[in-house]
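Table S4 entry, MurR/RpiR family transcriptional regulator.
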Amino acid sequence: MEKDLFTLINEKLSGLSKGHKLIANYILSHYDKAAFMTAQKLGKTVGVSESTVVRFASELGYDGYPALQKGLQELMRNKLTTVQRIEVTSDLMSSDNVLERVLNLDIDKIRRTLEETSKEDFNNAVDTIVSCNTLYIMGTRSAASIASFLAYYLGLIFPHVKLVQSTTTSELFEKIMRIDEKDAMIGISFPRYSKQTVKALKYAKSNGANVIAITDSKASPIAKYADSLLLARSDMASFVDSLVAPLSLINALIVAVSIRNIDRVSQTFERLEKVWAEYDVYAKSEEDTQ
């Protein structure tokens, strides 16, 4: 079958029966969940029978539901092009409900992140960050912003935090070449996944470093290198990657690390407050000047 699942659904959506439209709209909105649901589970979720789900697969030209599911999982691995993201989003929301729709989707992503992230892996990640010699943090493209955020705050707590920023593969390996079993690396990557981040985590793992992966799925290419896998939902909102849930997870990670090192954190910020005051770092609000 040459066309991907989303293309097939969008082409046939207007002519589908009521039950099939329920399935189609659920897949478009929750493709990450639907990719791993049985026909029975998908039917129960949207309120139709299992046989309706099977007929839906046939309606799209698949040889049964397992073939449709395989196609959806393949789409999950390859993710969507920017153009496909825009096209799917236009079917899901109109210009007059964007604010409500996007914010509610982000709320749902945080809730699902809380349900799906392993608390054991989260605690192991905290232990790793606290005990390692040097902590390397890497995130590229849209993930670079939250990698920088994480590195900034952990850098206030620990002296040996390195934010790995690179423009070429050779530069990347020059920056992480000394990583070893006493160190740790946090890799952050969401669809569409960065090959550089995958290469960096693979190298870190091969050198015995403890790897923490922050990503969206167990099927993510960085997940297989993780000693601690932290999952945060990052579904699309048009061509924009939603980083609300990943940032919330990172906030929790920073807070947990700071609680584990409360004395060090208190001393650090006491010194910083003096420095900030002495060198007039922060501007005052109008309320403070009255």
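The domain at 116-277 is CATH 3.40.50.10490 (Rossmann fold).
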